[in-house]
Arylamine N-acetyltransferase (Mycolicibacterium goodii), 276 residues
Amino acid sequence: MAMDLSGYLTRIGFDRPLHPDLDTLRAIVAAHNRSIPFENLDPLLGIPVADLSAEALAAKLVDRRRGGYCYEHNGLLGYVLEGLGFTVDRLSGRVVWMQEADAPLPAQTHNVLSVAVPGVDGRYLVDVGFGGQTLTSPIRLQAGPVQQTRHEPYRLTRTGDDDHVLAAQIRGDWQPLYMFTTEPRPRIDLEVGSWYVSTYPASHFVTGLNVAVVADDARYNLRGRNLAIHRPGGTERIRFDTAAQVLGALHDIFGINLADLADHDVEARVAEVLDT
């Protein structure tokens, strides 16, 4: 299916001329960051996320004004970029953020994009689906140099012939986020990964509420009842007393269309995971 580009561009508030160039890629990533939240309400409510077709992703994230997680965000953006004339490979990664160095090897449950820009040598790592610490600009898929985004600096390192680790500089410290290879993955592999993380009983997408959105000057991260607003000058923390207040934040701060979930008791489920 050809993506409904006009619907997507309206969703992200993008009204500048379109060209398959680096400036357009950067601008689309920034607009996507601002407009479509990271959220896991479907898995939290027992709704599997297995269909990663262009139709399904556009219906949810564009038409119904919901958010999603990595497979949905980067899946949708991948279709958009292909429709604009970029070359896109879909990659899988293993999340290592906030894990001990000797922790067991995590599963490949993260999805990122490798994007080729016409007329530009090399490829770019694009990831609009890593939640609270997602990339806010494309960076060169090149190990070694520190690369500045619209927010923090990032860098890639190599750990093997085809293994990369992405790290972000957070409060002065380099923190690894995920490892990945540059081997393209077919959609069926990504759908299996998405089904797993949206249904596995111990998955943190099933057991807790995780929501994020990135403004130009701040990152808004919600875990259960706890909202953190990270700005260059420091972090503001807000603790909501009730699930009703959390639902208010989901609508007012993150722009999530909760009417899409009218058949589910969202408030009762959120009340169960306020402190997870």
User: Anything to note?
Assistant: Residues 5-272 form a domain with the Arylamine N-acetyltransferase fold fold (CATH 3.30.2140.10).
